[in-house]
Amino acid sequence: MTGNKRSEIKKGLKVKIVQKKDQRSGELTEGIVKRILTNSAAHPHGIKVMLESGKVGRVKEIKGEI
């Protein structure tokens, strides 16, 4: 699953995000969703979330429940 639809993402879900600083390299950061920051139902580049670590980025992969 990709992270383009808000309905697919919930708090506590394990995901991989791309942070703003890593957009060129495409480096992904794995973590647990703390907050969903995108208000719209969908976004072509991925739904923006905050991880429990405090890092913010757009969801590129959904790994599943923890």
Automatic annotation (TrEMBL):
<dbReference type="Pfam" id="PF09962">
    <property type="entry name" value="DUF2196"/>
</dbReference>
<dbReference type="InterPro" id="IPR019240">
    <property type="entry name" value="DUF2196"/>
</dbReference>
<protein>
    <recommendedName>
        <fullName>Repeat protein (TIGR03833 family)</fullName>
    </recommendedName>
</protein>
